[in-house]
Design goal:
Elements: E1 3-7, E2 18-24, E3 31-33, H1 40-53, E4 62-66, E5 75-80, H2 89-101, E6 108-112, H3 118-131, H4 141-147, E7 152-156, H5 166-187, H6 195-209, E8 215-220, H7 222-227, H8 231-237, E9 245-251, E10 259-270, H9 290-304, E11 310-320, E12 331-334, E13 340-343, H10 350-363, E14 368-373, H11 377-383, E15 388-392, H12 394-407, E16 411-413, E17 431-432, H13 440-449, E18 457-461, E19 467-468, E20 479-480, H14 485-499
Parallel strand pairs: 1-7, 2-5, 2-6, 6-7, 10-11, 10-14, 13-17, 14-18, 15-16
Antiparallel strand pairs: 2-3, 4-5, 8-9, 9-11, 12-13, 15-18, 19-20
């Protein structure tokens, strides 16, 4: 991740590879935002070439112009903020991220975007760091060097010498690091990232984080899962030669003011099992563990920020494969706590491992439990690839939406119609693992609700937004996006702030 410094110097004098400025859409053409420091002739030149170069100032638009030595930077980078002269925090994040993403291979860049207050400065810094990402694990040295993100970032702000902004910059670095680490896990090949390997990486991450007795990890293997009655995990995992795991990562500050449980779906590869998926698009099913990845790094970020809230993460890890030992449609399994489930479709496996995780989480009596999962294709049908769904207890659902709005992620509140519960009835067990075809996302939420009892709860379905198979946009790369980390962390921070009042 790039090294970030703050500066209050005139951007014209910064000797960097690229200088980033904001450009807004206007009725008579694009307009530079907060760029009065730029020489008048320079502004006139930009206005003159805007139309021929197709510069509009639209969101996610990035254009690079040679400076010709008129300023110290080699390139002037124009990043669009849309039709506004006062961009909000998320617009600044996207503009900074889009620009930095386009500067891969550069040694240094400065961002002269609006950053006159702490909120704007935090957004610019966070967006730039989120955009400074590349995944090169499987690339050769030459390709890796070309894709390497900017090494040095300077953020231009009048607050550069204000000691109060240090915490905001530190938080931006922690958040970006957590998102990057989540993306790395999602992007890893499934022959390298299987349940035991994921658990080992979680152990290593906890060890690296330090924090002594405040941060602990526990891993349950196949034998422990069978002994503990975790029928969802063992049932889903029994078709693979690489067995399931349940990983508990617990951050416990000395005097916690609240107790939050997070449960993440961690299907390291989802073939669909015996109810096998079509071949087209199956390669993206390595991303079916994005919820568990987000939970792991949210807990670690909360520990790094030393939040006064106890946060426990449950990573429900399994590989869903077809084989002679795989679970079959019509099998009946017993979830942790005793409820039985008839498996009508082995490709509705995420809710089975999540049921085990939720049952274990509520046993510890948290104040609230949040689960996050790439759970249903119906989420993508309903909300597309950039908007996640949230359902659950009305107050917690609203809390998630508020946290997402503050973090810059899109979560849309969804209902849980009571009439859909009838579709989950089984003729032989307490529940069936699928309901009616229509409203499939909502039926999945109703299924999970069966395992939380009276605990305040919300379910976050990130099936579409977790993995970007199309073009990059803003600070979002191709592949794993790290969605959910910022929302979960913002919710924990909000609980911490509320408890301190």
């Amino acid at each position: 991740m790039p090294r970030v410094t703050l500066t209050s110097k005139n951007p014209e004098l910064l000797s960097v590879d690229a200088l980033v400025v904001a450009v807004a859409q206007g009725d008579s053409g694009p307009r530079l935002v907060d760029a009065d420091w730029l020489p008048a002739e320079g502004r006139a030149e930009i206005s003159a070439v805007a139309a021929p170069l197709g510069i509009t100032g639209a969101v996610d638009e990035v254009r690079k112009l040679p400076t010709g030595g008129r300023i110290a930077a080699r390139l002037l980078v124009l990043t669009g903020v849309g039709p506004t002269q006062s961009p909000d925090a998320e617009t600044l994040r996207r503009a900074a991220g889009a620009a930095v993403r386009e500067l891969a291979g550069s040694a240094s860049a400065a961002l002269a975007l609006p950053a006159d207050d702490v909120a704007a400065l935090s957004a610019v810094t966070e967006g730039a760091l989120l955009g400074a990402y590349s995944y090169t694990r499987y690339r050769d040295a030459e390709a890796s060097a070309k894709a390497a993100p900017v090494a040095e970032l300077q953020v231009v702000t009048p607050l550069a010498k204000d000691k109060a902004v240090k915490a905001a910059v530190t938080r931006a670095e922690v958040v970006a690091d957590a998102v990057h680490a989540t993306r790395d896990l999602v992007n890893a090949a499934p022959n390298d990232l299987y349940p035991a390997a994921f658990a080992d990486l979680a152990k290593a991450a906890v060890k690296e984080a330090g924090r002594g007795s405040a941060l602990k990890i526990t891993v349950l293997d196949e034998k422990a899962l069978v002994a503990g009655g975790y029928g969802g995990l063992t049932g889903v995992g029994q078709g693979s030669a690489r067995g399931p795991r349940l990983v508990k990562v617990a951050y416990t500050p000395s005097k916690p003011t609240a107790k939050v449980a997070l449960v993440g779906k961690g299907i390291t590869f989802d073939s669909g099992g015996i109810s096998i998926k079509p071949a087209a698009g199956m390669e993206a099913m390595k991303s079916d563990m994005a919820g568990a990845a987000a939970v792991l790094h949210t807990v670690l970020a909360a520990a790094q920020l030393e939040l006064p809230v106890a946060v426990t993460g449950w990573l429900c890890l399994a590989e869903n494969m077809p084989s002679g030992t795989a679970q079959r449609p019509s099998d009946v399994i017993t979830i942790r706590g005793g409820k039985t489930v008839e498996v009508l479709n082995t490709d509705a496996e995420g809710r089975l491992v999540m049921a085990d995780g939720l049952a274990a989480a509520v046993e510890e009596k948290p104040d609230v439990v949040l689960d996050i999962a790439t759970l249903t294709g119906a989420q993508i049908v309903a909300l597309g690839n950039r908007v996640s769904a949230v359902m659950g207890s009305e107050d917690v659902r609203s809390e998630v939406v508020a946290a997402a709005d503050a973090a810059g992620e899109q979560f849309w509140p969804m209902p849980m119609p009571a009439e859909l519960r009838a579709g989950l009835k089984s003729k032989v067990a307490d529940l069936a693992n699928i309901g009616d075809r229509f409203g499939g996302m909502l039926s999945a939420g109703l299924f999970l609700q069966e395992f939380v009892g009276s605990t305040p709860w919300a379910h976050l379905d990130i099936a579409g937004p977790s993995f970007n198979e199309k073009a990059p946009h803003g600070y979002t790369p191709i592949g794993g996006t790290g969605v959910g980390v910022r929302t979960l962390l913002a919710l924990v921070e909000a609980r911490a702030a509320a408890s301190s009042k």
